[in-house]
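step=encode ok
step=design start
structure_in=
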């Protein structure tokens, strides 16, 4: 498919390039919160969607949680001390505000406690200015004005007012001017004429804010229409920028960088916006296409001439490229954008009918309008059918597409001057008609409110196995605390790695060919490079009781913990001040590992009189996809089995062979206690063949049989599990780690 046709059919003029800025790692000390949205429902109290830091086994992660009044963020964060006192007092859907009993409050779109935000925003501004200068150097000689557009979350970050209502520079204005001066500091590297252009205007003249205005003439935050994806519904901001729309295209107008509070409505989509930077947290309900929509039109030169393929030919996408500097990871932005493009295609008409055209408004490049009524719609359809542009089923033909590409197609007399509008409409319909919709995911979905065991569960052979393994055990251990402390000190000094707060800057761009296959595979955007730098932030003021936290994480006495901490090298202990949560989690993990290693030789499991209940095989809210993670099976104790990896999926498929009588993916409720936490084996299997009858096997499937390739904690948990099954005292039950059905069969045949 022709490149330009492809772009127009997707309503994309410029090619899209993305730079994603992502913070990696959290210090867990600054009470970070971001209010994404408030949801209001008839007859129900409003709920809020709030992003906060959550303690997880692999460290602290930012997660969005649904909260309601009286919810305690200390509980939601898995007891991070920074959130003590953050109990929801009120969720106000009218003011879009959430308040807490400690006096803190947030409005939708607001972030608090993010010590890295200032550094990230500086990087975004720097990358936008850098991209602008690179683009401008190339475009200047072609007489094309380059504009960059910044969306910010608060006017005060760009303009402040003193007591006399005089304007002062906000943080973003100061940072912009600093970064711009740095970007052009080596003027001798630029061409003479472009150098002269850069020196023509002062840095204060080249950027302007387009915001709503109050009665005193001061800039204020625009009101946003949440139903339209955060678009400003304030006429004053809209009118201000519209009055300067044409003026902005002149190289004699100093303004090249524009700051605005919220997304601009359609109608202000200046063709010469080449960079869009979102200096605000990405909100889930705002469309990526809406965020970038004001910069997708094909650019024009200083004479107003459209720079399309007829002018630029093979250089079309070198010139018409929109760079988006996003406030989120590249992967997140690119994935969302591709999904939106795919969804928009599926909603388009497949055939040209009167209903598609009736009441449709066409607006040409000169601002002229044509509104279809039923008669003019039928006239166009008849004309196109006569010329072979549509077939007997009213589908767009290749004849029309070729005529459009060669600029030989004709329209009825009354539509003269609207050829480009008609061409774009016909190409969008043609693309949809030739676009094969993605597979119907709904047909592959499995959604069971309650998944009950089937008849296989009741089979005598499985019940015999289940009665033997459902007995619970307890363990006892004995070790010398001094020896443990010495081992832990040495291990922490050698192995502790405290996570640094890093910022990833990843860039990539849209492929020239954006077709159905690439969109469905998520490959229409290609990642090109990634660089990482340290965040220039400091830990928060939260005070820790380090000994108490370590005692809780390791189940050791305070005395033993103190001995370990006092024995550490000074440079090791210094890491605590750099990232307290990472230090605690990392040191505790090493201590627990050393403790587990000492305990393996000293641990004793004993049977109890308690057993697991059959009810753990009843699974609530069983959901998944037959195409991805669920198999429909015959020999399992459920009609479906959910797998966690390709290894498990292949293994489950192989278990459906003749040698296996019945098997079960052991539910999460089946847990073996260990000093490293509870452990859940994967499979319980009953074999029945002529070669081996009623062989019972408990299997743990891993992608590799190599011991060194298994995580250290997994190795130790597996060692404990073996002692647990040995304590059950059943010689006919084997427990082992395997990586395939073949290795399982080899293990049985020994």
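sequence_out=
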């Amino acid at each position: 498919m022709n490149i330009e046709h492809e772009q127009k059919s997707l309503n994309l003029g410029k090619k899209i390039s993305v730079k994603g800025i992502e913070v990696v790692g959290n210090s867990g000390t600054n009470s970070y919160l971001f209010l994404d949205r408030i949801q209001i429902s008839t007859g129900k109290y409003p709920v809020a969607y709030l992003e906060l830091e959550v303690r997880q086994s692999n460290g602290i992660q930012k997660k969005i949680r649904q909260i309601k009044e009286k919810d305690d963020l200390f509980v939601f964060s898995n007891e991070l001390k920074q959130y003590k006192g953050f109990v929801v007092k009120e969720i106000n859907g009218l003011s879009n505000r959430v308040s807490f009993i400690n006096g803190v409050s947030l409005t939708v779109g607001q972030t608090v406690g993010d010590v890295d935000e200032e550094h990230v925003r500086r990087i975004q501004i720097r990358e936008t200015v850098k991209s602008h200068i690179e683009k401008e150097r190339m475009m200047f000689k072609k007489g094309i004005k380059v504009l960059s557009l910044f969306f910010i979350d608060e006017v005060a970050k760009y303009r402040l007012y003193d007591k006399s209502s005089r304007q002062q520079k906000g943080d973003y204005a100061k940072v912009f001017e600093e970064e711009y001066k740095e970007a052009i500091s080596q003027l001798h590297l630029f061409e003479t004429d472009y150098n002269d252009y850069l020196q023509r205007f002062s840095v204060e003249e080249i950027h302007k804010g387009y915001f709503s205005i109050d009665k005193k003439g001061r800039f204020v935050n625009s009101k946003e229409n949440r139903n339209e994806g955060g678009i400003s519904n304030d006429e004053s901001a809209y009118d201000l920028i519209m009055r300067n729309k044409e003026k902005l295209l002149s190289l004699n107008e100093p303004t090249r960088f524009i700051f605005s509070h919220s997304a601009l409505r359609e109608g202000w989509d200046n063709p010469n916006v080449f960079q869009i930077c979102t200096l605000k947290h990405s909100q889930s309900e705002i469309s990526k296409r809406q965020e970038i929509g004001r910069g997708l039109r094909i650019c024009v030169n200083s004479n107003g001439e459209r720079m399309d393929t007829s002018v630029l030919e093979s250089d079309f996408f070198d010139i018409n490229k929109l760079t988006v500097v996003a406030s989120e990871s590249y992967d997140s932005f690119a994935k969302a954008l591709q999904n939106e493009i795919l969804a928009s295609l599926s909603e388009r008409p497949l055939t040209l009918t009167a209903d598609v055209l009736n009441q449709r408004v066409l607006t040409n490049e000169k601002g002229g309008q044509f509104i279809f009524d039923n008669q003019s719609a039928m006239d166009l359809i008849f004309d196109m059918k006569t010329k072979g542009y549509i077939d007997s089923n009213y589908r767009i033909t290749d004849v029309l597409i070729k005529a459009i590409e060669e600029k030989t197609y004709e329209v009825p007399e009354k539509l003269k001057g609207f050829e480009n509008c008609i061409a774009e409409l016909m190409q969008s319909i043609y693309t949809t008609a030739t676009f094969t919709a993605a597979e119907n995911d709904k047909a592959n979905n499995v959604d069971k409110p309650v998944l009950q065991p089937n008849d296989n569960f009741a089979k005598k052979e499985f019940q015999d196995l289940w009665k033997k393994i459902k007995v619970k055990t307890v363990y006892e251990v004995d070790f010398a605390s001094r020896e443990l402390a010495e081992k832990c000190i040495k291990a922490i000094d050698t192995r502790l790695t405290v996570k640094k707060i890093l910022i990833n800057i990843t860039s990539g761009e849209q492929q020239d060919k954006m077709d159905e296959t690439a969109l469905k595979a998520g490959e229409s955007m290609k990642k090109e490079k990634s660089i990482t730098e340290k965040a220039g932030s400091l830990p928060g003021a939260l005070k820790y009781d380090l000994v108490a936290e370590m005692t809780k994480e390791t189940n050791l006495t305070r005395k033993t913990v103190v001995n370990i901490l006092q024995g550490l090298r000074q440079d090791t202990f210094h890491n605590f001040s750099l990232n307290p949560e990472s230090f605690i989690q990392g040191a505790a993990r090493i201590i627990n590992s050393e403790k587990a290693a000492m305990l393996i030789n000293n641990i004793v499991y004993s049977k109890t009189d308690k057993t697991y209940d059959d009810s753990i095989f009843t699974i609530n809210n069983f959901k998944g996809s037959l195409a991805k993670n669920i198999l429909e099976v015959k020999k399992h104790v459920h009609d479906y089995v959910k797998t966690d990896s390709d290894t498990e999926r292949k293994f489950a498929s192989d278990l459906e062979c003749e040698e296996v009588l019945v098997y079960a993916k052991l539910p999460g409720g089946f847990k073996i206690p260990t000093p490293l936490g509870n452990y859940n084996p994967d499979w319980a299997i009953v074999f029945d063949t002529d070669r081996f009858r009623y062989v019972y096997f408990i299997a743990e499937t891993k992608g590799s049989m190599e011991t060194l390739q298994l995580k250290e904690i997994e190795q130790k948990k597996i060692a404990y599990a073996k002692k647990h099954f040995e304590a059950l005292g059943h010689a006919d039950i084997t427990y082992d780690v395997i990586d395939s059905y073949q290795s399982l069969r080899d293990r049985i045949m020994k």
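step=design ok
step=annotate ok -> The radius of gyration is 32 Å.
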